[in-house]
Amino acid sequence: MLQEDLQKIFRQVFEDESLVINDEMTAKDVEKWDSLSHITLILEVEKFFGLKLKNSEIARLKRVADLKKLVAKHKPDLA
Amino acid sequence: MFPGLDTGLSAHQGLFLNSWHFFAVAVLAVVCLRTIPMRYVRQAALLAFNFYFLSYFLYGWYPVLLLAGVLVGTYLIGLVKLKWGQNWPDGVVVVLVVLFWVFLFLVKDPDLLGPANPFHYRPVQLIGVSYLVFRSINYVVDVEILENRNFLTFVNFMIFFPTLLAGPIERYDRFEEFHSTFGYEEGPTLLPSLHRIANGLIKKFVLADNLMVFGIFMKPDQMELAWPLIWLGVMLQLAVIYLDFSGYCDIVIGLAALMGFPVCENFDRPYLARNVQNFWDRWHMSLTGFIRDYVFTPLTRLVMEKADRRRQFAWITAVYFFCMLLIALWHDTTWGFFVFGLLHGAALVGLQLFRKYLSPAVTRSGLGSLRDETAVAWAARALNYAFISMTILFWYFGVSGSLEIIKSMVKL
Questions:
Q1: Catalytic site residue B284?
Q2: Which residue in A35, A42, A52, A73 has the most chain B C-beta atoms within 10 A of its own C-beta, making it the best mutation to test that interface?
Q3: Could you tell me the residue ranges of all domains in chain B?
Q4: Which of B142, B145, B300 sits opposite A39 (nearest CB)?
Q5: Rounded Cα distance, B350 and B318, in Å
Q6: A6-17 mean pLDDT
Q7: Which of B15, B292, B295, B371 is an S-S bond match for B56, by CB 3.0 to 4.6 Å?
């Protein structure tokens, strides 16, 4: 469920309906994933899951798996 | 050493990376850290090596006191922040980060603000001060999510001798993991690390040192040179700086890995970058990553959350310029570096504008597929390399001098 929700958000932010995310995926794997769109992504994730992430937590996000872990930490029922 | 590269290797009569003395210290450090299983003894040994190395770069009590102030002050701020917990206002972190930057600029340039600068009448040379401040910011901002925040780990993190002079800027959480683990390794270590050190020594002390004379920075009479020689000097300069700095990084990354501290990378073949944004993703990566995480992201997030939607792009443009000016002026507070920062900020904003307004049309027209053509990719790399090379002229020759050289390059 978390995977599907995140995939929906990724597709919307990066404007790519064929995007399929996986745990090892990083910014290098998605053409439009740069430092600016990364913030849009975080804000969309926050809005969707009703979270407020700290800047220090955002700084640690490198892979999709890190984002999933962080969302699950704040919303354990989604894990 | 080139102006603007804060490696401190030529400004100080310290322990040089290519000396037998440094080699002996490095070998001893590797042996100790690889053979002492008792955690606190090993960490205390590292502390001794760090202070031994540092002692070759500290002259008099003034820098010692300043260093002690930075170490104790940062650690105490961390303790207070932890004690306050959720009650710690976000605004205080912002003020502290700004104060750290102000401190850094005042120490680095005693003439900045004239007599109002506390270091104006008593300048101090504190080795690797930029990297100390960056690590302090990392520690203070992230302290509540860090583990093993004891003072010994903290001091070893702040003055870890392989990366003390010029980075890479390692983050506390990764460093702490290496620091707590006996014999930490990420894949094969011995031969790849020795190979890396050898590569670094060749890049820095054989290639960069010998090619340096052909670079434009070493030409006292640039305007008298023949047109092709000016081009050669300008284009070679970036390569020489790359060989010098990435060679230094190869040495320290290789040594740190041998010690059980596989610190982060700092370069990823920047000559392959197709645009300025991609260049900064590949050049001095630990610095750009630091600016991204502790300046760009918080500011842009603030803009996206608070600013009126119609004005967001203008604000984000301002954030891009601010970050590039910060990176530029951190090197040196001169007009040349200011213009360098402006040009790179403008290039980043131009790229965002292209992506926003032109890129969809290019894709629709079918021309987008050309981006993947080998010839187009290499043309983009060459243009980007030339742009970066021309902008670094401003580091050394100031605004008018650089413009004169660029005019003579294009024969205006």
A1: no
A2: A35
A3: 57-181, 270-409
A4: B300
A5: 13
A6: 93
A7: B15
